[in-house]
């Protein structure tokens, strides 16, 4: 007799197949899931932060979509931007209080902010950089627009001032600047020369998904990530990159060699977007609220300052 004449039996077989497939997928997913959260790649390198014990500060509603961070003039304060309003916010990293704010442009999709002295650089998603010079007490600025070769297809999300070179570092979340020339699974970190006001066409540094996967999974498998922030450690000069897709932070040296990997806990970092250091070398990471409160996580440097790893040789 045909199975079509036995609907109960047919339903049971179909259900059994579904359960087997789901169970198999669950097993594969489980066996491929990372076993650790912290990966010290170079045994000679001492990672200066304890990611198990951050100070997490909730932010007010104005910063629920916080998208970039940079250190501010006063100790413990950070300059931030969110991805809708043409405003900059000074926020206390310990209390979450907004202590100052000022307008610099029209409401657009802003993704990052960097500072060198009184010069502030705000990164737009299409790669344009909005430059302004801060003056105490001024509440509204007319920013100068620095155009780059990036566009919306690149979705530029991270920017920082590189204290080692005097350039700005920019990371695209999506397509590389020259995708036809780019290595598959490599994410470039590009330099913008402030003196010449031009973007260098080739990345200065990169993160390789296969190299990350080799460390995290222990085999040749890419760890898929999409960078959302970049910062330079003022003491070691290492480059830190965070990714909201992948919830990961990767530390590389100036030869693009991976030194440390941290998998960011989603409970704290729902959507990590901003990263920066203060001049003492303490680390800050911001995360959008995504249905809740946005936060800034602060990590106090545990090595107390410059160490033998300062030049990371």
Q: Your description of this structure?
A:
- The chain is mainly beta and 313 residues long.
- The protein has two domains: 33 residues; 262 residues, TolB, C-terminal domain (Neuraminidase).
- Helices cover 11% and strands 38% of the residues.
- The chain is built from two helices and 22 strands.
- A five-stranded antiparallel β-sheet has the order 1-19-18-17-16, with helices on one face. Strands 11, 12, 13, 14 and 15 form a five-stranded antiparallel β-sheet that branches.
- Strand 5 and strand 6 form a beta hairpin.
- The longest helix has 26 residues.
Number of helices: 2
Helix percentage range: 10-25%
Count every beta strand, where a strand is a DSSP E run of 2 or more residues: 22
- Let me know the CATH homologous superfamily of the largest domain: TolB, C-terminal domain
CATH top level assignment of the largest domain: Mainly Beta
Keywords: Cell membrane, Membrane
Main location: membrane
Family: Belongs to the YjiK family.
GO cellular component, one term: plasma membrane
């Amino acid at each position: 007799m045909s199975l079509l004449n036995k609907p109960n039996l047919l339903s049971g077989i179909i259900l059994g197949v579904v359960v087997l497939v789901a169970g198999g997928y669950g097993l594969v997913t489980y066996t491929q899931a990372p076993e650790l959260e912290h990966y010290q790649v170079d045994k000679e390198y001492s990672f200066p932060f304890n990611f198990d014990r951050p100070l997490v500060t909730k932010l007010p509603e104005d910063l629920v979509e916080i998208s970039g961070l940079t250190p501010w003039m006063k100790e413990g304060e950070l300059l931030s931007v969110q991805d809708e309003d043409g405003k900059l916010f000074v926020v206390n990293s310990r209390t979450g209080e907004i202590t100052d704010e000022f307008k610099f442009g029209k409401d657009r999709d802003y993704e990052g902010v960097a500072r060198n002295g009184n010069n502030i650089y705000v990164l737009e998603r299409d790669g344009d950089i909005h430059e302004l010079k801060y003056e105490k007490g001024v509440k509204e600025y007319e920013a100068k627009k620095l155009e780059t070769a990036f566009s919306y297809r690149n979705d530029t999300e991270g920017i920082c001032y590189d204290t080692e070179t005097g350039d700005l570092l920019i990371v695209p979340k999506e397509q590389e600047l020259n995708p036809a020339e780019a290595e598959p699974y490599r994410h470039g970190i590009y330099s913008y020369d402030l003196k010449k006001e031009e973007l260098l066409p080739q990345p200065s540094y990169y993160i390789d998904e296969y190299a990350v996967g080799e460390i995290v999974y222990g085999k040749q498998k890419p760890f898929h990530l999409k960078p959302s922030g970049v910062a330079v450690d003022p003491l070691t000069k290492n480059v830190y990159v965070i990714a909201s897709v992948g919830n990961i932070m990767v530390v590389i040296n100036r030869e693009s060699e991976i030194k440390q990997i941290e998998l960011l806990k989603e409970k704290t970092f729902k959507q990590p977007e901003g990263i920066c250091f203060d001049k003492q070398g303490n680390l800050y990471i911001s995360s959008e609220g995504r249905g809740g409160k946005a936060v800034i996580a602060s990590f106090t440097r545990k090595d107390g300052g410059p160490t033998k790893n300062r030049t990371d040789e």
